[in-house]
């Protein structure tokens, strides 16, 4: 096992929300951090500045998670700079809200490319390094909707359900190589993904949650961090849902 301070983490979608909070959580421990983003260049740089202020070495790198070619170029750059990840946090994602009957083929392809193909491809690219060193951590950021399903988010629920199955299968395949694969499936969290909700709708949602509030990105980041620790080696193939008691 590697000491956490000797590891490198790659966080996809690290420019905001859960990804940014996760980067800052790792920075507090001095971990080397690669922050992936798509177009939010300045936001990613701001996260990097906050992480570097805590003493971490940080690299920001842009790629369209939907493109295998761009992900391959991202890997090349990470290798050149000595940032081959020991920990992969597949956080990048996008939600799709609307009636099932209105979903188009383009909607399907885009949602699956971001939420399912992206994590699959990232794992394929970075797992060989983990296998060679017989150590690694993969944490996939899923959603409570991948566990329960959601009306008007059928497409998103399908993609996240796929991530959960991917997590379970890959965990079994990689366990003999000292690599764990787990998924964090948050409930309602204060991020841009809930920006489509009106204030009264958010208030109504909070009343459904036993904790009486939405979660914070920092709370989710703490769980991701815990699953990355060397001493978390016996937690594998799990879908863990921090949701304030909404789903039990």
List keywords for this structure.
single chain; alpha/beta; 13% strand; 248 residues; 8 helices; Rossmann fold; seven-stranded parallel beta sheet
Could you explain the architecture of this structure?
With 248 residues, the protein is an alpha/beta fold. It has a single domain (4-240), classed as NAD(P)-binding Rossmann-like Domain (Rossmann fold, 3-Layer(aba) Sandwich), CATH 3.40.50.720. The protein has 8 helices and 7 strands; from the N terminus they run βαβαβαβαβααβααβ. Strands 3-2-1-4-5-6-7 form a 7-stranded parallel β-sheet, sandwiched between helices. Helix 4 links the parallel strand 4 (87-90) and strand 5. Helix 1 runs parallel beside helix 2 (41-53), helix 1 (17-27) packs across helix 8 (217-228) and helix 3 (68-80) runs parallel beside helix 4.
Give me the side-by-side strand order of the main sheet: 3-2-1-4-5-6-7
CATH topology: Rossmann fold
CATH superfamily: NAD(P)-binding Rossmann-like Domain
Poorly predicted regions are: none
Helix and strand topology:
Elements: E1 8-11, H1 17-27, E2 32-37, H2 41-53, E3 58-62, H3 68-80, E4 87-90, H4 105-133, E5 136-141, H5 145-148, H6 154-174, E6 179-184, H7 199-208, H8 217-228, E7 239-240
Parallel strand pairs: 1-2, 1-4, 2-3, 4-5, 5-6, 6-7
Q: How would you summarize this macromolecular structure in one to three sentences?
A:
Pfam families: adh_short. The chain is α/β, with parallel strands linked by helices.
């Amino acid at each position: 096992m590697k000491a956490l301070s000797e590891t490198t983490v790659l966080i996809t979608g690290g420019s905001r929300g859960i990804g940014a909070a996760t980067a800052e959580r790792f920075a507090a421990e001095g971990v080397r951090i690669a922050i992936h983003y798509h177009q939010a260049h300045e936001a990613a740089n701001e996260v990097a500045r906050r992480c570097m202020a805590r003493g971490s070495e940080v690299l920001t790198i842009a790629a369209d998670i939907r493109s295998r070619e761009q992900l391959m170029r991202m890997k090349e750059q990470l290798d050149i700079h000595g940032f081959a990840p020991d920990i992969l946090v597949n956080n990048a994602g996008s939600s799709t809200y609307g009636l099932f009957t209105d979903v188009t083929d383009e909607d399907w392809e885009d949602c699956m490319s971001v939420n399912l193909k992206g994590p699959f491809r990232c794992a394929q690219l970075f797992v060989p390094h983990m296998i060679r060193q017989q150590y690694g951590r993969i944490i996939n950021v899923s959603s409570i909707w991948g566990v329960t399903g959601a009306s008007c988010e059928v497409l998103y629920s399908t993609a996240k359900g796929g991530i959960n199955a991917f997590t379970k299968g890959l965990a079994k395949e990689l366990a003999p190589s000292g690599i764990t694969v787990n998924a964090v499936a948050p409930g309602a969290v204060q991020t841009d993904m809930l920006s489509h909700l009106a204030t009264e709708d958010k208030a109504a949602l909070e009343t459904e949650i036993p904790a009486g509030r939405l979660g914070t990105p920092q709370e989710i980041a703490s769980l991701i961090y815990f699953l990355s620790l060397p001493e978390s080696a016996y937690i594998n193939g799990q879908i863990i849902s921090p949701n304030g008691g909404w789903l039990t």
